[in-house]
Amino acid sequence: MPPRPPWQALTVAGTYAVAGLLWIVGSDALLAYAAPAEWLPTLQALKGMAFILATAGLLYVLLRRLARYQAEVSEQVREKAALRGRQEAFESLAEHAPDLIARFDRGLRYTYVNPRVSEAAGRPRADFLGRTHAELGYEPALVALWDNHLEQARDQGEMQQLTFRMSGSSGRQRFYEARLVPEGGEAGGPAESVLAITRDLTELQESQQRVEQLSVLYAALSAANQMIMRAADRYELFESVCRILTDQSGLEMAWIGLIEPQTQWVAPRAWAGGERAERYLERCRVSADPRRPEGQGPVGRALQAEATVVFDDFLGAPEAVPWQGAARELGYSAVAACPLQAGGEVIGALAVYAGRTDFFSDEVVRLIEELAGDVGYALDRFELEERTRYLAAHDLVTGLPNRAQMLDRLEQALTRWRRFGGRLAVLFLDLDRFKGVNDAFGHEVGDQLLQEVAQRLLGVTREMDTVCRQGGDEFLLLLPEIDSAEDAAQVAEKVVAALASPFCLAGTELVVTPSIGISLCPEDGVEADTLVRNADTAMYSAKHGGRNRYCFFTEPMNRRVQQRLEMESGLRDAERRGELELGYQPQVDIASGAVVGVEALVRWRHPRHGLISPANFIPVAEESGQIARIGDWVLAEACRQCAAWRETALAGLPVAVNLSAAQLGRSDLAEGILRHLEAYGLPSSALQLEMTEGLFFHETEPVRSTLQSLQRSGLQLVVDDFGTGYSNLGYLKRFPVAKLKIDESFVRGLPEDTEDVVISSTLIRMAHGLRLRVIAEGVETAEQLAFLREHGCDEAQGFYFSRPLAGADLARWAQRR
């Protein structure tokens, strides 16, 4: 209650003054009138003294009242100053406090927030003042939680506590604990306001989780180290380590792969993580070669850098595109890969996959690295043991598997055949007249020759094939999982061709030829010994038939090989006999639907076998060296047809013609093309030259010179089958590339196949980024076309529009369209 001013005392004093004046004047008159003369002086003296006493008493009362008022005013001034000081101290502390501090009035509206509240919410402080949680737009569940506790603190006058989660300004979920303190009001009664002090416990909670995670990983590391001591071989070790990591550390999947030295592919040797892990590894390949897209992921980079590589955002990393479809489907969000070393060299990698992006902290990575180091230590131990086993299973001269190892692998292949079916082949190879080399130059040169032969045999076989030295000058080749006898014949032809070049040994050139026998499973046997014996028999037939050749064990197989030879022979005269013809497939602008070009496709109409697909005779033409001649005929015929379309709806449209590697190797290619154009009065824009991406990868000096000649001549290039190979994309800047053609293998699965969707859309964006047009081939459905249109693909061709047609038929088709 504020002090009362002394106006009442002043009024009394004034009244007293008037009364005193009246008393003095009136009393004197009264005394003069009523008192005896002799008493008059005495009475006047007493009257004066009484007045003085009354005046003194009144003055005393007034001074006391004034002093009390001044004291009350001073006390209130001190109290207000103290209150203002406390408020300033509170706000000063709150402004710099690490906690989130806010004050609410009785209506649960914000009256104060410190800067930490603004930072956490990502909105200015002014937005809060005078508004409730609901008015600020928070989630209804969070609003209900806060308002319930605020009402209890306000109405009951007791502190309340709550915990909650909320997304911060960065979008990350954070964990908070709040204490609500009532302010003002009487004890135990309703409060005037509520002070909320909120602490961000996210880091504390995450720290606790990390401690728990590290404890689990330490336990897994201990279990793995115990397994390292007990493991009998590397594969038992690999499987145990992978299983322990997934069972005890919270990882979704772990696998260990080893580098295949010849191909640089990383072959999975052990994995854990259930069916998902198997599905992932079946769909995804990894390479240690940095030139391949499959070598740009975490495993490939770890192998190249010989250091741990972590992809915290595996699904968002552009380098991880080849694996993102499978990873997204199977729930793998982050990957860490550690190289594995044995004998001082990197031989493979340990890759682990987590379901969340923040799994691989520095501590976790160090533990995984420690585990990878322990595995490497065990591998060194196994290396010594494996070396002993290797010497027992391999030929000491060539390093190839010996006969025992070969028979073991043949038994494995036969087991797989019995389970899954299919075919496999055994090739028995004998070097003709090898004994003469030993006699003339000695066994040292003979051994060097065997080593060179072994390398050439490895160069013409697949990774899954097995080449072994049977003994002496004999070799065995195992070809599992082949589709037909022709596949085995092709390998035999490659072997004959590979050994045809002289061997430069002992300062001279040595020539050896092979005699090869081929047996097939199941046609020629289903047991290992039987297949080897029958191949040996067929080898002697080849040797007796003239050497430097191959022979199948059965006559029907020989007949099929003869059919291929017949095709090669017939192809030589097909052009002269007029059996070659061109079909033309339109290329359509997706946006307008207009025909903007055609592609010339060669066909062979055999007099006895009818129309032969290029997929059957083009490989024969390439292997027999006839492809360049056929390519010249295609160029000339395409120019003739283009000139014939001058008066049709196809006038002025470019014709795309495929070029082979043999044509690109010729220095006069550009001059020859210009001669064809000049002969029919066509500009250089009438032709577009298609070549596969792989031709740029093998960009030799002759090829580079030819491409530069084409560039100077104004001829444009179309990169065919784009995305199926991997090359230095610098050629897109160096040469006049007009279009990139997306291979039909990426179009076939659209729009359902996730990987095809990612690859196709990425290729389109990349091409447009380079200001190139994109054409998709193999379009067969409206759904595929709709996807390509949606993602901005420029052109398309395929059966959806038209099959390849003869020149006149295509002109009529275009006119009707």
Automatic annotation (TrEMBL):
Q: What is the lineage of its organism?
A: Bacteria, Pseudomonadati, Pseudomonadota, Gammaproteobacteria, Chromatiales
Q: Which Gene3D superfamilies match?
A: 3.30.450.40, 3.30.70.270, EAL domain, PAS domain
Ranges for the PAC domain?
A: 160-213
Q: Which domain of life is it from?
A: Bacteria
Query: Which keywords does this chain's UniProt record carry?
Result: Membrane, Transmembrane, Transmembrane helix
Q: Which residues form the PAS domain?
A: 86-132
The species is Halorhodospira neutriphila
The membrane spanning regions, by residue number, are 7-25, 45-63
Q: What is this protein called?
A: Diguanylate cyclase/phosphodiesterase with PAS/PAC and GAF sensor(S)
Question: Which PROSITE patterns has this protein been placed in?
Answer: EAL, GGDEF, PAC, PAS
Instruction: Show where the GGDEF domain sits.
Output: 422-555
| One Pfam assignment | GAF_2
Where is each EAL domain found? Answer: 564-817
